[in-house]
From TrEMBL:
Protein species of origin: Vigna radiata var. radiata (Mung bean)
Single GO MF annotation: methylmalonate-semialdehyde dehydrogenase (acylating, NAD) activity
Membrane spanning stretches: none
PANTHER family: MALONATE-SEMIALDEHYDE DEHYDROGENASE, METHYLMALONATE-SEMIALDEHYDE DEHYDROGENASE [ACYLATING], MITOCHONDRIAL
GO biological process, one term: L-valine catabolic process
Family in the record: Belongs to the aldehyde dehydrogenase family.
Identification of the protein by name: Uncharacterized protein LOC106754521
A cellular component term, taken from the record's GO annotations: mitochondrion
C-alpha cells in the first residue's frame, strides 16, 4: 500500500485508506505520481493549483478543490488545500426518488494531492496522496464543462471586455492568446457575458432606486 499512495496524513481517515487498499488490489494500471512529484516552491496557493491543473489537462482529466483551510492565527489548525479528480466521491441525491446514478460522472476516483505552505513559509509545496485513477482518462478536454471555466485571472478580463461591448468572439480570442491551456468555448463566453450584463444592470438599478429614495427624502423637508 505504501508504495502506491504517498504522504497520507491525518487528513485521510481509516475508511479512506481502506478504499485505497481495495482499489489497488484490483490491479489498476497507470501511476501518475511521478507526473505530480516536484520540488518546486510555488509562490502562492493559486499558482500551485494552476500548475496542477495544467498537468492534469495534458493528461486528460480535471482537478477540483475538495477541501481547503486557512489557519491564520490558529496554531491548532493547518493551512492546506486538498485537490482531487473531478470524478472522486459519490453521487449525492437531492431528491429521494432520484436515481442514484442519474447523469453522474462520480466513480469514487481516489486520485488526490495536497498543497501546503513550505516549512520556511516562503511559498507552497505539493504532496501526492494517491496518484491513481479508477477510470480511463479523456483523450481531449475540449468542450468539457468544467475545464472551460474561467480562472481568477480570466474572469476580470471577460467582465471588463463585456462592459466595453467587445464581441464574444474577440473575448474568446484574447483569452486563448493569454492562456495556451484555455479550452473555453464561445457558448461559455456568451453565458458569462449574459451573467455579467445581468449583474451590472442589477447594480445600476440598485443605485437608481437609492438615488431616487434620497431625492424623495430631501424633497419632504
Amino acid at each position: 500500500m505504501d508504495e502506491y499512495c504517498y504522504g497520507i496524513d491525518s487528513e485521510i481517515n481509516s475508511s479512506r485508506l481502506s478504499e485505497f487498499s481495495s482499489f489497488i488490489n484490483e490491479g489498476v494500471e497507470g501511476d501518475l505520481t511521478n507526473n505530480f512529484t516536484t520540488n518546486e516552491i510555488f509562490s502562492s496557493r493559486e499558482n500551485l493549483i494552476e500548475w496542477v491543473r495544467g498537468i492534469a489537462y495534458n493528461l486528460g482529466f480535471v482537478v477540483v478543490t475538495i477541501r481547503s483551510d486557512k489557519a491564520i492565527g490558529q496554531p491548532e489548525r493547518k493551512t492546506f488545500v486538498l485537490l482531487g479528480c473531478e470524478r472522486g466521491g459519490k453521487f449525492r441525491k437531492y431528491k429521494s426518488d432520484q436515481p442514484s446514478t442519474y447523469g453522474t460522472r462520480k466513480c469514487e476516483c481516489p486520485f488526490q494531492l495536497r498543497g501546503k505552505p513550505s516549512s520556511n513559509g516562503d511559498g507552497w509545496v505539493l504532496q501526492v496522496i494517491c496518484g491513481y485513477h479508477n477510470h480511463d482518462l479523456a483523450e481531449t478536454l475540449v468542450r468539457h464543462p468544467y475545464s472551460g471555466r474561467l480562472n481568477s485571472t480570466e474572469q476580470p478580463i471577460l467582465v471588463d471586455m463585456t462592459k466595453t461591448q467587445v464581441t464574444p468572439t474577440n473575448i474568446l480570442l484574447t483569452l486563448k492568446q493569454n492562456n495556451d491551456h484555455n479550452v473555453t468555448t464561445i457558448k461559455q463566453v456568451y453565458t458569462e457575458g449574459i451573467h455579467t450584463n445581468t449583474h451590472s444592470k442589477g447594480q445600476e438599478l440598485k443605485l437608481l432606486v437609492t438615488s431616487f429614495g434620497r431625492i424623495l427624502m430631501q424633497s419632504s423637508y
